[in-house]
Amino acid sequence: MKKKKGGLIAELQKKHEEILNSFNKLQETFAIQTIEKLRAQEELRFLQEYSHHIIESAGDGIVTCDTEYRLTSFSPAAQRLLFYRSQEILGNLLHEFFEKPEEFIELNERIIKDGYARNFETTLIDKNKKAVPVMLSFSYLEGPRKNPIGLVGVIRDLREIKNLQSQLVQSGKLAAIGQLAAGVAHEINNPLTIALSNIQFILPRVNSRETRKVLNIILKELMRCTDVTQGLLSFSRETSKRTIEALNINECIESVFFVLKYKLKISKIKLIKRFAKKLPRVMGDANQLQQVFLNLVLNAIDAMPKGGHLYIRTSAENKKFVRATVADTGIGISAEDLLHVFEPFYTTKEPGRGVGLGLSISYGIIKDHAGEIQIKSQFAKNHKRGNTTFTIKLPVCVRGAARPNLKKRK
Ligand SMILES: Nc1ncnc2c1ncn2[C@@H]1O[C@H](COP(=O)(O)OP(=O)(O)OP(=O)(O)O)[C@@H](O)[C@H]1O
Ligand SMILES: [Mg+2]
């Protein structure tokens, strides 16, 4: 009986140890699981922050929408591009941003067919109702069980690229027409010079007043033809030699007003000059740059037949550029004309009043000076005045820097 009791205690002790062991193991497993869970949570937080940083700092806009095409996120770059703040736009439908609804349908069809759409060019409308050319790449956004929960898209701003493309086309066009113009001008210039000198020779020898009057008309018209051929030649940069020097744009513009002072006065145009003092010099050909400002001011005068204001401003930009603006309160330029004004022979003026070369010549000259010429205009509508501003940027002359490309073109 004594032996039986001792065996029972031993058995109970064994069971107790077994339970204790299992409990310890359970505790250990629980501790490991807790550590793993914490680690997973930390990793998840890191991944969330990581993707948040990528989205926040991406140069392209990133947007997401649900399966109903309602916006669920709108990155800072997308906000900067379309001027909407995320709070005001979330929940809106994706297709509302498309200028042409049929392009949204096409994008959507591509996503449905291939599972994604890449490099899809279209135009979106920003908060100010302005068209923004963009390139879109969209694909499905997957949920935890790989089920599609919406779309994720990248929006790339194409404005700068489009701008560069059109400048490239413009320079190409100008170069081609320049060559053609030079050829034609050469051919016309010689017979024109002969005709002019012969008339000038005959004129003083003619007694009849009537005949002299007729010859004078011919002379005047031939002179106009010479102006055109000179315009063509200077357009193709085939004019006489150039002098490149470090010059002050203020002085360059001032000399133009010296010539046009009287014309501005009789045209009832008030000139408002804001010249920056101590303007850095630019490297260039004074004659050519004067020609540019002359063209711009003559255009401004033509645009204000009933008078108006002409603003000329100069300033330095980051010590790198000199900026000059010529602004008028004239008739302005329509959106359609704005696309063409730098093209040679594009004019809206009556025959005899404009050849359409002023701006294309100016464009060529500024490009040769490694500069930029830009235009902004508001077309006069409903009896309201328009306005036009030309901005010219020329690189500041730096000692030892490359000279502008002002060589004679062959
Ligand atoms: N300041 C301006 N305001 C309104 N329209 C302008 C202005 N400047 C240019 N334009 C428009 O641009 C067109 C082209 O200008 P551009 O100077 O090249 O040629 P043009 O003045 O017509 O002729 P040209 O200069 O050869 O005598 C003009 O016909 C006019 O329609
Ligand atoms: Mg002109």
What's the short story on this structure?
The chain is α+β, with helices and mostly antiparallel strands. It contains 10 helices and 12 strands. Helix 7 packs parallel to helix 8.
Structure, explained:
- The chain is an alpha+beta fold and 410 residues long.
- The chain has three domains: 58-157, PAS domain (Beta-Lactamase, 2-Layer Sandwich); 163-239, Helix Hairpins (Orthogonal Bundle); 242-410, Histidine kinase-like ATPase, C-terminal domain (Heat Shock Protein 90, 2-Layer Sandwich).
- 50% of the residues lie in helices and 22% in strands.
- The protein is built from ten helices and twelve strands.
- The strands form three sheets. It has a five-stranded antiparallel β-sheet with strand order 2-1-5-4-3. The chain has a five-stranded mixed β-sheet with strand order 7-9-10-12-11, with helices on one face.
- Helix 7 (249-266) packs parallel to helix 8 (286-303) and helix 8 (286-303) runs antiparallel to helix 10.
- The chain is elongated.
- The protein binds adenosine-5'-triphosphate and magnesium ion.
- The site of adenosine-5'-triphosphate (ATP) has 23 residues, from helix 8 and helix 10.
Provide tags for this entry.
12 strands; Beta-Lactamase; binds adenosine-5'-triphosphate; binds magnesium ion; single chain; Heat Shock Protein 90; 50% helix; 5-stranded mixed beta sheet; Helix Hairpins; 3 domains
